[in-house]
Amino acid sequence: MTTEEFNPNDATTTPMTRLQFDNRFVRELPADPDTENVRRQVLGACYTFVNPTPVADPKLVAYSMDLATDLGIRPVDCESRQFANVFAGNEMLEGMQPHAMCYGGHQFGNWAGQLGDGRAINLGEVQDIHGQLQMLQLKGSGETPYSRSADGLAVLRSSVREFLCSEAMFHLGVPTTRALSLITTGEGVVRDMFYDGRPQTEPGAIVCRVAPSFLRIGNYELFNSRGDIDNLRLLIDYTIRHHFPHLGEPSKETYLAWFKEVCERTADLVVHWMRVGFVHGVLNTDNTSILGLTIDYGPYGWIDNYDPDWTPNTTDATGKRYRFGHQPQIAQWNLLQLGNAIYPLINEVEPLQQILTDYVELYTNKWQQMRADKLGLNEYQGDDDHELNQQLQKILLLAETDMTIFYRRLADVSCEQKDLSDEALLEPLMEAYYAPDALSKEDKKDICDWLRQYQQRVQQDGTSDQDRKARMNLVNPKYVLRNYLSQQAIDKAHEGDYSMIDELLEVMHRPYDEQPQYDHYAAKRPDWARDKPGCSMLSCSS
Ligand code: AMP
Ligand code: MG
């Protein structure tokens, strides 16, 4: 039979069965011998076999066509009944070995002990069309031994956010886990969204997440915390063998090279977050990927007006540990926990300490180069550019300035025309201000002074306006997944209208392109969204 003859309604010939699983994680690492699905401490194992809980009425809301294609799943497959059944956890494909991972973590700076996949279940590793194995993981598919006091479920609101943001980040060029599908369960889930004793029933949903691995810093921390060095070593050797194979055979040097590379990847990741204005919101060590991916989209948010002190997470409102501008330091703190976790394999503080110290310089260099790229400069040129950046920081804080629009519009400020009036110079940027009238005369003068310095700096490079704009527009997106846009898509989804999810997925597919038909999705946050829950404030309750 050719694929064209495939009938999606005929369950016996469905091509979903073509997915080839090669489950090296469960094959090569120790399993929990106990397969009973009761909450408990799991010792000496990397995971527990556990089945997803079947749901009442799985319905496909959205899927990522390009990710499906990468996995060898055609659109017609995605729209089949079987796809919804499989990615809601109601049907297992041959080769799947569902399991929940065991990990610990530091939450808000405190060691929390065993956490684990409390509402995520890995289905298995499937080979994508590039020959790479990808773990498929359901999020929100029921209780596991790691569910602690919670229900193992996810609501539509948080699932829409995870689905859209994973794909948006991918197309923005930010390393991330991905999302294949968003499926409603037909069941209600009770959530006290504001922790104010007014729980409500919300629609349940499941996202299928996809990544080469969902290993986190917390996986390594847990073994070390229990003094289980044999399993720590097994897990690290496994990680290097499959995810960092270029580092070579296990040895103390290899472990250090691995730690260094994890630091490098994490630095790259945070540079990207700072570039696009993404705030993770709960950057605990259990939410920090060992591959340098953005993982666990919870109370994340996007910077509208530039504010390094902003955090979307209401749970973090007092300490603001996970605020936008603090992410580079928090990443280093998390890496320090990884350093502690692998210490028993190194038995020397100094080389680990050195790598962590080097992280600061590494991050700073990467960020300086990224800032130069954002300004369309050839390269970062030391003290002068440092001063230009310091001044820019002040300019951005003079009045509420939309970060995304500011950088995008800066590309429209001419650096070739040297005799522009202040007004003409400022004109392209005015769109970025939330209250342009609030800009005082002095503010405008400060901004113009900075723009003239910037013009001079660009002229030094000899870059034409046209080239600079083209370059800047490759790193400064026109479209980001603004908090209020996701919330609008969620509000509509609650009424059964999923069209805005599809539209946002479509627009976020090409975030650096102008796409004039979607201009309204590039608009700054409207005033009604300023303090609206979901738009500016989120809780971990999802
Ligand atoms: P997070 O910081 O949201 O990634 O989650 C921290 C820990 O809580 C992880 O072990 C999660 O699996 C677990 N968790 C979060 N929400 C739930 C839930 N609804 N049911 C079970 N476990 C959960
Ligand atoms: Mg998590």
Beta strand %: 5-15%
Order of helices and strands: HEEHHHEEEEEHEEHHHEEHHHHHHHHH
Number of strands: 11
Counting DSSP H or I runs of 4 or more residues, the number of helices is 17
| Sheet of most strands | 5 strands, antiparallel
The order of strands across the largest sheet is 2-8-9-7-6
Q: State the oligomer.
A: single chain
Distance between the termini: 45 Å
Assign the structural class, choosing from mainly alpha, mainly beta, alpha/beta, alpha+beta, or little secondary structure: alpha+beta
CA-based gyration radius: 24 Å
What is the global morphology? globular
Mean pLDDT: 95
Percent range of helical residues: 25-40%
Bound molecules: adenosine monophosphate, magnesium ion
Can you walk through the features of this model?
It is an enzyme of class 2 (transferase). Its cofactor is Mg(2+); Mn(2+). Keywords: ATP-binding, Magnesium, Manganese, Metal-binding, Nucleotide-binding, Nucleotidyltransferase, Transferase. Belongs to the SELO family. One of its GO terms (molecular function) is manganese ion binding. This protein is an alpha+beta fold. Among the domains are: 205 residues, no CATH class; 86 residues, no CATH class. The chain is built from 17 helices and eleven strands. The strands form four sheets. A five-stranded antiparallel beta sheet has the order 2-8-9-7-6. Strands 1-3 form a two-stranded antiparallel ribbon. A two-stranded antiparallel ribbon has the order 4-5. The chain is globular. The two termini are 45 Å apart. The N terminus is likely disordered.
